[in-house]
């Protein structure tokens, strides 16, 4: 309001100098462009425009010549030039400075009566203290004792749930400006560091050595470091992770000491040399005096166990895949399989009586009345072959891989792996020279078979599982899943209730047949594919041979008490075989009476560990 | 039977989490405001256990917040302030657009602001909680206080940060609670005004953090000053103030401006609320708790005594800082441990005595040589101060004279566990701390090294323990070859060799036992379950890695020492 009063007073002062006034009002003057007049004065008479308009040149001349040019103002409404008086100039100056127009006006004096109702109201409000002057803003924050009253209720559940951000790592020796010399990077390390991605680098900086403090530059990454920390603080998801804080020694299972589980084979004592190619299969005689081995050099060799002498070498017509000594001590017979033939040999070793009895047993065969069509042809050897020891030849339709005797020594089974037919396993009876095919259906590629040592059960291992058949009832009793990719070998515990399976994927599965059809224990102690597994006949031992060239002997105690699980403790790792063509140990077998183990390997040797 | 059909993702973890975008929509905030809110309130994303479940079956990468957290944000009064600010900005823009300058001015006067006091109180319900997060706050404040005033951030923020950090340093001096000196912290304080501002950094995020941290640090400072009976905001001791005033009245025009500088000179002690005896022994009250036995108590007492001694490390010494050394950090450290410090008058306000003062004991110098030297004082390099403080004892000054090659500066933050690499300097230092003479332990070090080597060898031996068998094998091979060539095997009986450990001497028996044990362990490891084996392998891998790294460092050190020895020899010749 004071301002408006001021403006009014200025208008009054203006009026003094002018007598000509245009009454057309506040309209655009262009509307009078085409008329000779420019409006009407107070008396209603026309105000005429000057005859000649000033052009630029006139303006310029005026500016140069007229001393009052600076105080001349052009009035658009009357189209005339007005020369301002001294008072008027003074007024303009005052206004330009932002002062009041009236020089005599005292701005600090309150004009209570003259300034109208609004001003008086405001003045009243100020007097009464209703309107307060604006406080100066506080620029600096105010601090006080925020934690004066620490109230336990203020600790909310949130605070308990809060996951504090992990602290930044404090600088180590390598971050020092003058680190010990071993922390500095060598030239190669520096190059490697430079080539790495910044994310992969173990140190985010290059350790540097400065001879003195004044040579130390500003820490160039400080802003980055702080910024990254900020990002971490508000962007990184947080999660509580339990750190495992265990003593690694506690993780190792407590097992009985191998020392207390003796006897078991510990040292290599004999090496049987003579074969020139890998020895696929070995078998010990039931008396434990002789050992037979079959090799890829198409020979079968007979050894004396205690001396390591090769007593006999028999050439056969192909690489020998499997040999098996008849477990019956009253019979001296060895089954050898190569190509598609199974050969029954009488090595003529040991007791003469037994040898003679064996020959008699074979010759005493009388052919039955009616000839049955058989899958295998039985042929009796005669002449020079008989002299060499050949007794019976069983010609199979397909290649034979494995041959196994039944515990009584009369039955014999051969395996012809073939994925397409049901003729994979054959069971032969020697005394009657009979052969039968127990299976009507093909249940997968048969890897190996085995007879139950006591009961009429028959174990067939296919690629991934072991099937147990009852031979009398002629039915499947159990199917064991081995949880491994490819079974390579199998052995039955002499008690008949336990079984081990070796597999090409480095595992050894122990099945407890009473317990479950799943392995009771999986051992992964070999580094490479297992090739042979064996149980000892009397001692609680089992051994496994693998392509890593080692034979691992384990103590495997089976208790009569059904409630107690078998105890398995590895007791010895036996090494000795050299790895040739990526093959190590091919077959293992135990001595029938002593705690000794034989192993045959791809390095053409057989070794005895005692 | 019956009942409503259960729908997927309507219960369980899917309902406990919320994605960032949804949270933002729920709060009706822009992304920038949401970010600010999260920073101020300390809300962080969570990693759900089953990401796919939470993400409603999708595997797209998303940030998840706890729904509880977001609900908690809904009631935050500061959200309203954010909205008010948004409205303010809109109005201001409009006023600008219309060129209504009075309006602009009026709006500016009424600019809505907010306070973070309640947030600080809420986030840190106790003072101890606040102290736990103080390290980040300090680093940030020190960083911001060094920024140039180029408009990257508000000048007020920079001055505030500077003020708070100076206050903090003054508190530390007053309470003498500095323990270790780290280069990283110092570097921040030491080289101001030289940052080339990196461009790939979002300063808004940093500014928000700083906003929060300055508030926090202010309150913490207040509280700390209160505990020491100091006046807050800090005032210089009246005595010290008068001294300073008398000298520098002419140089500094404005009292308010120079005040911060006087404070930051760190040379004067602070005014106390209640004038107490300066040397008030604040003995900790001893309440032997029941479970604590005598030994523990003694250990604690001993520790306390050590700490006391550490606090008075530089007491009675008079230092003078040359102009080329970082004044602030050195003055700070020296004052923390009770020294008297001064510097050249032209360098900074607050120097109390001159170079010519005869009672100066140490002068800290960082230049290759000095022209004019006084006899009765040591001229040492600044590293002596840092190393002495870290070692908690006055180190011999000989290694730190002018122009001498400095010994390596070690980080005080590294605490070596067994198996870690310990640099030989640290070993020496530890020996010094135990009070042994430095001459002896060089040999000791060597011995230690040798022991290590032996152990390594043993380890290697364990791995290929059947060397003998291999040799046997080789002999047999040879024989075989001979037979193949000559066809006649010279059968010969050679006397059997007795293996060395079967002779029964003590060393061999020990060795045999060790081997047996190692084998037992190896066999037992074979029988481990898969899960445990995995864990065991992982732990052992970690251990082996530390051993490998330590070995690498030792080897490097050895190579370096050999090289330096060879150099010395070459010089002699």
UniProtKB/TrEMBL annotation, chain A:
User: What Gene3D superfamilies would the database entry show?
Assistant: YVTN repeat-like/Quinoprotein amine dehydrogenase
What are the recorded GO MF terms, alphabetically? ribonucleoprotein complex binding
Q: Which GO BP annotation is one of this protein's?
A: maturation of 5.8S rRNA from tricistronic rRNA transcript (SSU-rRNA, 5.8S rRNA, LSU-rRNA)
Against InterPro entries, the record matches this protein to: BOP1/Erb1, BOP1_N_dom, WD40/YVTN_repeat-like_dom_sf, WD40_repeat_CS, WD40_repeat_dom_sf, WD40_rpt
Q: Where are the WD repeats?
A: 272-313, 578-610
- Give one Pfam hit by family name: BOP1NT
Q: What cellular component GO annotations does this protein have?
A: nucleoplasm; PeBoW complex; preribosome, large subunit precursor
Q: Which family does it belong to?
A: Belongs to the WD repeat BOP1/ERB1 family.
Quaternary structure and interacting proteins, as annotated: Component of the PeBoW complex, composed of BOP1, PES1 and WDR12. Within the PeBoW complex BOP1 interacts directly with PES1 and WDR12. The PeBoW complex also associates with the 66S pre-ribosome.
Q: What is this protein called?
A: Ribosome biogenesis protein BOP1
UniProtKB/TrEMBL annotation, chain B:
One biological process term from GO is: maturation of LSU-rRNA from tricistronic rRNA transcript (SSU-rRNA, 5.8S rRNA, LSU-rRNA)
Disordered: region residues: 279-302, 432-470, 549-573
* Alphabetized Pfam families for the sequence: Pescadillo_N
The record ties this protein, via PROSITE patterns, to: BRCT
Instruction: For this UniProt record, give its keywords in alphabetical order, as a comma-separated list.
Output: Coiled coil, Nucleus, Ribosome biogenesis, rRNA processing
Instruction: Specify where it is mainly localized.
Output: nucleus
GO MF assignments: ribonucleoprotein complex binding; RNA binding
Keyword Heme assigned: no
Matches recorded under InterPro entries: BRCT_dom, BRCT_dom_sf, PES
Keyword field contains Metal-binding:
no
Where in or outside the cell? Nucleus, Nucleolus; Nucleus, Nucleoplasm
Task: Tell me where in this chain the BRCT domain is found.
Answer: 309-402
Per UniProt, subunit arrangement is: Component of the PeBoW complex, composed of BOP1, PES1 and WDR12. Within the PeBoW complex BOP1 interacts directly with PES1 and WDR12. The PeBoW complex also associates with the 66S pre-ribosome.
* Family named by the database record: Belongs to the pescadillo family.
What is known about what this protein does? Answer: Component of the PeBoW complex, which is required for maturation of 28S and 5.8S ribosomal RNAs and formation of the 60S ribosome.
Protein known as: Pescadillo homolog
The taxonomy runs: Eukaryota, Metazoa, Chordata, Craniata, Vertebrata
- From the UniProt record, report the name of the gene that encodes this protein: PES1
